[in-house]
Amino acid sequence: MAVTTTNDARVLDTLREVVDYVTVGRVFGTPIAQGEMIVLPVAKIGGGAGGGSGTGPAAEGQDNGGAGGGVGISAKPLGVFVLKNGKVGWRPAIDMNKVIVGGQIVAVTALLVARALINARAAKTRDGGWAQSMARRAPGLVKDRVRHEMDRTRRRS
């Protein structure tokens, strides 16, 4: 059987209030009407709470005790429903930070790919192709094999 003290009861009441505050009713904001148009804001609401307590045998000269607690709430706008002339439309909220970061990632990736292609083309031009660069580097018997590959490459071109 759990025994709650006055402080524990106050903490639990506070946590219950927070959890009750984060309800489905908070997802839809207050409708805004202007003329024949009604705008209904929509958000993603989430939250949670935690608690703790503790008692136990105390070491000599020390008091029993314990504590704990935690609360978290988040809200993110999703967009609005627009009701006009008997029709309902959805207008999503755009997070410009995500759009900007996404654009930067695409730009950096494109630059890295372009650099790799330019470096590969420059190496091919500078070395005269794979077979010729290998012929310059290969000693002895390997040179014959590389020359054979060069001849074969020339015949294909």
* Helix count from the secondary structure assignment: 4
Structural class: alpha+beta
Helix content: 40-55%
Largest sheet data: 4 strands, antiparallel
Order of strands in the sheet with most strands: 1-2-3-4
Shape: flat
> How many strands appear in the DSSP assignment?
4
Count of separate structural domains: 2
Q: What does the radius of gyration come to?
A: 35 Å
Low-confidence stretches: none
Beta-strand residue percentage: 15-25%
Explain what the structure shows.
The chain has about 160 residues and is of the alpha+beta class. It folds into two domains: about 1-95, no CATH class; about 95-155. It contains four helices and four strands. Strands 1-2-3-4 form a four-stranded antiparallel beta sheet. Helix 3 packs antiparallel against helix 4. The protein starts with 5 loop residues before the first helix and ends with a helix. The relative contact order is 0.09. The mean pLDDT is about 75.
